[in-house]
Write a structure and sequence with these properties.
Strand content: 15-25%
Order of helices and strands: HHEEEHEHEHEHHHHEHEHH
Helix content: 40-55%
Radius of gyration: 19 Å
Distance between the termini: 41 Å
Oligomer: single chain
């Protein structure tokens, strides 16, 4: 019986240490939870039918719109560090569950970024948004590139975080990863993290085939994008900094920002990422938590 308080103290100490190590990420997360409860009544949710699938979306706030596109094998809540301050800055924030993720259907079609961009346009049409700024992370950034090339009239400014315009931008380790399939605890985690549930294995196979094959853009394609674009990449990203530099240089109105961290900088290095986004979009720089 005497060991119980000791075990409790060890667990508590571990939780406190974990919280401290996760700062400011933990601060942003708990702020998002408080904010989402306080603003629950002002949230608009809905769905659209798109190419054999149902795409779920959520809209917060009012003002000039900004569309947030999450990465593959994640979920729309990866934006917990960005949604509150973007809304408070006077922006209408639209997020969606990418096809096959969260409560959006997967459908039968093989995945490609033009299809995902078409899904996003369907959401914009549903919300009667003619033109929007776009912030895309990873696959969301790749999708934004297709919006810029195929639907240029629908986008204003674009922020591309850890995006690649063709598979050559991925590190060799990441390309090798696309041939593997998760199992055991990793599979259970991805089932929860993506919101895909029982369809996670099928989703992972399709997403990784897309990573190996798409996008297929070249520098000449990037030169046709007229929108101002901020390219953000982590120093230890799965997208090489050389590729990010090449992308920013090819874009007629491209800027490059290299931040600390790896591939999950909107979560792990949100202070730096948010400051860069705020400056680029000309909105107030958010507080750190």
């Amino acid at each position: 019986m005497k060991s119980i308080p000791i075990i409790f103290c060890i667990v508590l100490a571990g939780l406190v240490l974990g919280y401290r190590l996760a700062e400011p990420m933990s601060g942003f997360f708990f702020r998002y939870l408080r904010w989402s409860v306080a603003h629950r009544a002002s949230v608009l949710q809905g769905h659209v039918r798109s190419e054999g699938s149902t795409i779920h979306f959520v809209s917060y706030g009012s003002g000039p719109p900004v569309l947030l596109l999450h990465g593959g094998l994640s979920n729309r809540l990866v934006w917990f560090s960005q949604i509150p301050w973007l809304v408070e800055s006077g922006r209408r924030v639209v997020v969606l569950d990418v096809r096959g993720h969260g409560i959006s259907g997967l459908g039968r079609k093989e995945l490609n970024y033009r299809l995902l961009a078409h899904d996003a346009v369907g959401v914009l049409d549903k919300l009667k948004i003619d033109r929007t700024d776009v912030i895309g992370w990873s696959d969301g950034g790749n999708t934004a590139l297709l919006l810029g090339t195929e639907w240029p009239g629908r986008v204003g400014k674009m922020v591309l975080i850890s995006a690649n315009f063709n598979p050559s931008g991925l590190t060799p380790e990441m390309l090798e990863e696309t041939y593997s399939q998760s199992s055991g605890p990793a599979l259970w985690f991805k089932r929860w993290w993506t919101g895909a549930g029982e369809r996670i294995s099928q989703l992972e196979r399709r997403v990784k085939r897309m990573w190996r094959t798409f996008p297929t853009l070249q520098p000449d394609d990037l030169r046709k994008i007229s929108a101002p674009v901020l390219v953000i990449v982590g120093r230890h990203d799965v997208v090489s900094t050389a590729h990010a530099r090449k992308m920013a240089a090819a874009l007629p109105h491209g800027e490059l920002e290299i931040v600390p961290g790896g591939h999950s900088t909107p979560i792990t290095h949100s202070v730096q990422v948010n400051a860069a986004i705020a400056t680029f979009l000309n909105i107030p720089v958010p507080s750190k938590t």
